[in-house]
């Protein structure tokens, strides 16, 4: 089908929950994708940080094909070999001791909220249930995760929201100290707020949060759904600060494109859950975890994180240089290959024009361009992308 046919039939049959662009992507390889009309694009969205190894990485494809020929799904009533292997890889390369698998970041965050409350109830009693999260955060679309999200625009129309959530500004330790109390069971933080505009948590702030949690008996939860799995130039973003959480959530890049989420926790906290306390029919199924094993093994074995560090510096320098030429560029920020460029103007026309010229990027909020290329992106691909962006900026400045 052509792009126009896909758009027409999609509008007829698919619920209208996305502001979709007038194109259908049908093929991908590495950092490139092609639409239904055969047009080629550089993809610096990567499925919103999902395609960490680019599109159709040979090792991920081979793992999916092999597993699909053996066992696609079975119940978690039984032990699942690739699930165990992926859990082992996550534990051996993080602070954690135990892993629970879900299907998405929202599910992982929902589970983390449940785990924190269940643990606090067992250890401290029923009055310790409040979750403090940050303003401008984003934790998912399920009801509790939506309520934990510190952006009112996502919550409108879903009231009444679950009780027991409070919000404080990022990097404001006094505000958190004032908000935290005997009822606080957890503090939920994204080390890098991706959907909130690519804002990085200060390392001294995270150290202060860790100490406040220790004093109050609250758990520290990191939402690394977008910033984890090598995206920031470390396997996990918490490694930059050296401040480990009690619980960490993952998803997006974990399956290399296959839907999967995970909760990683210390042994002590993981004991908050017992048999029957939490479950997921599809969570950690053989196909998804086989893809996860292939993805994580490749990230660890092929210097993907080193490339992310190097290419992140290249991208940051290119964006900085570009920003110095145009008056509407306010700030460049981020870590690794999670980068944001804040403008003083609306970004949608720029996103649209870049797409017309063969570059896919996206905006968060009304005025921040977000760049999420694959972690194995090359300097040549970054240069090509920035040349397109420079063209668009030049036209925008003249307008």
Explain briefly what this protein structure is.
By secondary structure, the protein is α/β, with parallel strands linked by helices. It has helices spanning 3-13, 46-49, 58-68, 81-92, 105-123, 143-148, 173-179, 203-216, 238-241, 267-270, 286-301, 304-323, 348-356, 379-398; strands at residues 25-29, 32-35, 40-43, 98-102, 130-134, 165-168, 184-189, 192-193, 199-200, 219-223, 247-250, 261-265, 329-335, 338-343, 359-360, 362-364, 368-371. The protein has a domain at 59-301: Aspartate Aminotransferase, domain 2.
Name the descriptors.
single chain; 399 residues; alpha/beta; Aspartate Aminotransferase, domain 2; seven-stranded mixed β-sheet; four-stranded mixed β-sheet; 14 helices; 17 strands; globular
Structure description:
With 399 residues, the protein is an alpha/beta fold. It has a domain at 59-301: Type I PLP-dependent aspartate aminotransferase-like (Major domain) (Aspartate Aminotransferase, domain 2, 3-Layer(aba) Sandwich). The protein has helices at 3-13, 46-49, 58-68, 81-92, 105-123, 143-148, 173-179, 203-216, 238-241, 267-270, 286-301, 304-323, 348-356, 379-398; strands at residues 25-29, 32-35, 40-43, 98-102, 130-134, 165-168, 184-189, 192-193, 199-200, 219-223, 247-250, 261-265, 329-335, 338-343, 359-360, 362-364, 368-371. A 7-stranded mixed sheet has the order 4-12-11-10-7-5-6, sandwiched between helices.
């Amino acid at each position: 089908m052509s792009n126009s046919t896909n758009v027409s039939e999609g509008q007829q049959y698919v619920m209208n929950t996305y502001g979709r662009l007038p194109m259908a992507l049908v093929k991908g390889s590495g950092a490139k994708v092609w639409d239904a009309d055969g047009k080629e694009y550089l993809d610096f969205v990567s499925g919103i940080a999902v395609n960490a190894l680019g599109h159709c990485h040979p090792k991920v494809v081979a793992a999916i094909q092999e597993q699909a020929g053996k066992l696609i799904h079975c119940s978690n009533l039984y032990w699942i070999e690739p699930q165990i292997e992926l859990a082992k890889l996550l534990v051996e390369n993080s602070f954690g001791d135990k892993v629970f698998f879900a299907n998405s970041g929202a599910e992982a965050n929902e589970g983390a909220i449940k785990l924190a409350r269940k643990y606090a109830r067992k250890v401290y009693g029923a009055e310790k249930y409040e979750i403090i999260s940050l303003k401008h955060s984003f934790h998912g679309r399920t009801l509790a995760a939506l309520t934990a999200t510190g952006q009112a625009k996502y919550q409108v129309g879903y009231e009444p929201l679950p009780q027991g959530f409070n919000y404080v500004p990022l990097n404001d330790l006094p505000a958190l100290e004032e908000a935290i109390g005997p009822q606080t069971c957890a503090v939920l933080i994204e080390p890098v707020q991706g959907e909130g505009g690519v804002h990085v948590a200060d390392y001294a702030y995270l150290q202060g949060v860790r100490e406040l949690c220790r004093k109050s008996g609250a758990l520290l939860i990191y939402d690394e759904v977008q910033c984890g799995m090598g995206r920031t130039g470390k396997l996990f973003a918490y490694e930059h600060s050296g401040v480990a959480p009690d619980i960490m959530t993952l998803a997006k890049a974990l399956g290399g494109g296959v839907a999967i989420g995970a909760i990683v926790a210390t042994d002590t906290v993981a004991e908050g859950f017992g048999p029957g306390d939490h479950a997921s029919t599809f969570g950690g199924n053989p196909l998804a975890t086989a893809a996860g094993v292939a993805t994580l093994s490749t990230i660890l074995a092929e210097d993907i994180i080193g490339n992310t560090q190097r290419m992140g510096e290249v991208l940051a320098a290119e964006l900085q240089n570009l920003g110095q030429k145009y008056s509407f560029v306010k700030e460049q920020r981020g870590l690794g290959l999670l980068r944001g460029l804040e403008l003083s103007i609306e970004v949608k026309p720029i996103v649209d024009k870049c797409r017309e010229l063969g570059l896919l990027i996206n905006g968060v909020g009304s005025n921040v361009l977000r760049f999420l290329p694959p972690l194995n992106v090359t300097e040549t691909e970054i240069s090509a992308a920035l040349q397109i962006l420079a063209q668009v900026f030049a036209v925008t400045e003249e307008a």
